[in-house]
Automatic annotation (TrEMBL):
<feature type="transmembrane region" description="Helical">
    <location>
        <begin position="498"/>
        <end position="519"/>
    </location>
</feature>
<dbReference type="GO" id="GO:0030246">
    <property type="term" value="F:carbohydrate binding"/>
</dbReference>
<dbReference type="InterPro" id="IPR051677">
    <property type="entry name" value="AfsR-DnrI-RedD_regulator"/>
</dbReference>
<protein>
    <submittedName>
        <fullName>Concanavalin A-like lectin/glucanases superfamily protein</fullName>
    </submittedName>
</protein>
<dbReference type="GO" id="GO:0005975">
    <property type="term" value="P:carbohydrate metabolic process"/>
</dbReference>
<keyword id="KW-0430">Lectin</keyword>
<dbReference type="InterPro" id="IPR013320">
    <property type="entry name" value="ConA-like_dom_sf"/>
</dbReference>
<keyword id="KW-1133">Transmembrane helix</keyword>
<dbReference type="GO" id="GO:0006355">
    <property type="term" value="P:regulation of DNA-templated transcription"/>
</dbReference>
<dbReference type="GO" id="GO:0004553">
    <property type="term" value="F:hydrolase activity, hydrolyzing O-glycosyl compounds"/>
</dbReference>
<keyword id="KW-0812">Transmembrane</keyword>
<dbReference type="GO" id="GO:0003677">
    <property type="term" value="F:DNA binding"/>
</dbReference>
<dbReference type="Pfam" id="PF13385">
    <property type="entry name" value="Laminin_G_3"/>
</dbReference>
<keyword id="KW-0472">Membrane</keyword>
Amino acid sequence: MTHWQLLKNVEHVFINVKCNQLGFRREYLKNIWSFILTFIFGFCVCQAQKDYGSLSKEEKKEIRLRSHLLIDLNSVLLDSLPIAQRISNTTPWAIIPSSKKNKNVRFLHEYSKYQNKLIVLGTRNILENIPSELSVVWVNDRDVETLNIEEEQTLSEVDSNGVQELLRVYVKNKDSLGIDKLLNVWLKKGKTPNFIETAGAIGHINSLVDSLNRQPKIYGVVHNELGELHGVSFKGYLQNHVQGNFSLPIDESQTLPALIPYKSGYYFSPDIIYTTPENRNNPKDFMAFPLNPEYALTHDYVFGTQIRNKLAFDSSKLISNNVVAKKDSVFGDVSYFSNGAFIDTGITSKSALKSNFSICAWIKPTQLDPNNSILGKGDNFVFKLHQGFLTFTMAGIKDYVSTSSPIPLNEWSHIALVYSKIESMLYFYVNGKKTDSMRLISNYKNSDFHLMIGSNLWEEFFVGYMKEVKIWERELNDKEVKQQFIGIPKASKDFSALMWWLIVVFLIAAVFFIFLYNFKKNKDSLIPRKKPVNTLNVAIHNGSSDSAILCFGPLRIMDSKGVEIAKKLTPLQKKMFIIVFLHSQNGQKGISTKELTGILWPGKSIAQAKNTRSTTIQNLRLILSSCKGVELIFKDKCWFMDVGANCFSNYAVSEEYLTMYKNEEYDHTDFEKDLPKLLSIISSGRLLANESYPWLDPFIEKFSNRVVELCIQIGEKLEIESQNELIFDLANVICIYDDLNEHALKMKLNVLIYQGKLSLANHVYDNFAKLYEQLYKEKYEVSFEKIIVLKDYQS
């Protein structure tokens, strides 16, 4: 008897009894009871039936990691379906409902005798009369990827790009499917085959499902801050991509795998997980972060009146042969290649284009020959135009001609070529859009030759204009290539005339303002001024500086255009900057090469350290070149970070303040006005908060101690009646540098009690005591009453 039938029986008894007891009209009471029944039944049905999308993460995971025998009730005869024999074992089932209602009802009635859970593929509510004891999960078609496996199909023919969480495998010929093929599909897809269906007898499939569910596996999720991340590969696996949630079968008789996630344009944390018997059943969680667009950018050639590599300290080693500088209405200064013109980028380019690489360039061909080389490097790398189509050539192997990537004559085009070593694929782009992809028939190998721009080893010269060529030693993704293509600038017809008029107007304005400034200066110099006494000789950053070095919280370096360039630094470059910068403060003369080498390259030979150091210094200088007033120099046998007056350094300002207040070299009348300036700087975060190195700890500890000691020293001199807010600010700063400082707690509690905020004072004390217990594993024994200073405050 179903719940509905039971409730109907109760209805009959209830209505008859109540009508007799209360004398109500039977129809009136029956309507009330029908409403109650409908509500209760609807609630029970909602609880017993759920959509896959509404399940909890754990419930979804249980379904994702499990294989089911899928029965299409439209294509089977119930009389031939061994329900009692098959359902009574542990093999989970799923169904596709029949279009015949009676057939569905009959199946559900029989199924519910043996199982209380069922997965149904299809639209909800197409089933009627579901037994109340049966819990149903509805899986919509949008959540399932369907794969039809034919007898002759091979693993390489199985696509891996489906983004749906669940996988349905349909086998036309059950005898053509073995466990090995299913495991290969699992590897290729990166997700468990969840629903196995066949048009034939189910006995063989039933055993396969059982084998899949017994198969050891590793599983987890790859995601970024926005959610699951699609299209991620694991190095060394056969499958192409996984789509957020993943699972992979493992062979315990072999070495357990290491998971190394890879997706162009991202790095991962952690970047590798070794599978062990102990952690095999733990879900693996990889967090993805986007790479800086300039990460692994190794060459950035710009053309015009000068031809240079923006990333090289010295571009004099570039050998230009007949390349001419010209004016262009779109890009201004560009280079023109004709009559066999080319650029040899020199010996340093021998190491370029080693494995993964990406190339972006702005070109404007004016003549198309059978072959026009854009870049060439030995016989294994030629990026060219072949009959006007983008082409990549490996001599003696193949010309990879992209007929879907034509380049027009006499027009600027942004072109890109990306090589993915892990996929052995080439990707072509024109004006920010992917136009073609090709699989290499032979692995790409780097050649030990110079990189040539506008030519190659066969002297297939480029004819036309170039503005820029950029090379990365990594694979750019579609979004990154599109960001490099920012659109073709619109030409200005009257560019030259307009520029001349602007120059004339600017010169007239400049002469006028120089005259006005000198006149005012001469006039002011005639007015006698009083010499200021004990005024602060400290510059506070008000936005007028050309650049800034901000050391509290994460390190930030702002160039003269307001661009944050610290993120462009590699970890090694950032370490070098911090070391030299800190050794250049407070009158220090810098750091010697020997000391610097001992910190950054311990254990390396002198020659190895010298090469690495020279490259790091060269690249660091290049990045800092956009910051006016900041220069890394070698002075008096020491490396020194010269920070000029036009660069604001909040660390230098804070050091001046700390020294000034410690020595009491300040004007007391300006004390309350100037102290908050110091507090605003050092309260923005701990010094270099995101950096942690053994050599850095002494600097951090020394500075933190100075801050805490000064704040306590000043706080003891302030009057709570008139300066309580300043005392509270000092206490907050102390807590930034010392979480469990009792002086700071004492200062806070006294201020809050004076302000009449007793409950807030208790709250502050309780938080301190909790933190103390968490860190020291023992209770804080000083009571609230003992720690406060009792005074007769005036209200």
